[in-house]
Amino acid sequence: xxxxxxxxxxxxxxxxxxxxxxxxxxxxxxxxxxxxxxxxxxxxxxxxxxxxxxxxxxxxxxxxxxxxxxxxxxxxxxxxxxxxxxxxxxxxxxxxxxxxxxxxxxxxxxxxxxxxxxxxxxxxxxxxxxxxxxxxxxxxxxxxxxxxxxxxxxxxxxxxxxxxxxxxxxxxxxxxxxxxxxxxxxxxxxxxxxxxxxxxxxxxxxxxxxxxxxxxxxxxxxxxxxxxxxxxxxxxxxxxxxxxxxxxxxxxxxxxxxxxxxxxxxxxxxxxxxxxxxxxxxxxxxxxxxxxxxxxxxxxxxxxxxxxxxxxxxxxxxxxxxxxxxxxxxxxxxxxxxxxxxxxxxxxxxxxxxxxxxxxxxxxxxxxxxxxxxxxxxxxxxxxxxxxxxxxxxxxxxxxxxxxxxxxxxxxxxxxxxxxxxxxxxxxxxxxxxxxx
Length: 437
Fold this sequence. Notes:
Shape: globular
Organism: Bacteroides caccae CL03T12C61
Oligomer: single chain
Protein name: Aspartate/glutamate/uridylate kinase domain-containing protein
Radius of gyration: 25 Å
Number of strands: 17
Pfam family, one: AA_kinase
Helix content: 40-55%
CATH superfamily of the largest domain: Acetylglutamate kinase-like
Distance between the termini: 38 Å
Structural class: alpha/beta
Largest sheet: 8 strands, mixed
Family: Belongs to the aspartokinase family.
GO molecular function, one term: aspartate kinase activity
């Protein structure tokens, strides 16, 4: 059984692309964000409403109605389905107009937001029925509950979903709106949109899916373009170590949940839903280099000792200050007189660090850096892989090399202007193609 999650559906063409992807994948659950245009109008309602501009709010609600009617006429041509969807639109719009008239508070704002999310999902549900699917909108607001720490209450969700599935066995696909849940007080609520992948993974785990397909922004990931899965497959451990090293791939708990239920994760780009970019599972293909990931907006910092503190005390002082300001260290190398780090921190934060450490070390800062992570089975005994990497980068200025901290990652730091040249060289060497412009 399969669950698919999609991101950023902007217009009618995107809707058609998602529907075509669903037709190919045949997921049991399709997890969908609210349409981008509806999202913008939703924000406009909140802004005008809290400024007591009721007329502007009603005008925006009317625009939502016209937009949904237009999509219905274009996407749902079967007369009865078209009529049923328009009835649903009218009911929803009437309810939103009534809510706008109420006194503004956060709960009513969330209720309006939930209504629009549900309307967006219903448009997909009826469009799928038009395509012959026996589809049903999944009211996640009834059983996706978060606890006091704002994390999914998985035991509660498992129980309520089990009952829901038993009551709706006739449907072959469910359309679930992203983010909607309820809090511990039973009120409508939303999980952070930054955790959309996690929200979908929780659903997939609860439905006991074999795999989850996540559409996400992955322009920084380069893998073999011949689509042979064994050449772009990561294990759960490789993916988790990569995320913990500071590289954005997925919310870490997605990997934990997937590994616990042995559920495979397939990553596709939001602009190319049909092409699998990465595959994460328990199976290790044994391939040496499986993917290359880039990380921009990094800063190279070298701390050179002023001999005020012994080396071990200087290291402790550096780590204490970095921990104090919660600075992410991407990679690090040291000698007996200096310590070099690749950091992700603002210029203001680095100035504060420099002020705190000026008695103990001189800081040299180089901004506009990129970090390239070479991912795969890279144990130190694989000398051939090391030599191929070093041979590939011999003509490219490299500021920092980090190797040995993980058997799955070899990290190079270069100026951003050299990033594409490095990625292309590595891609030709290990994938036989050119990935970056």
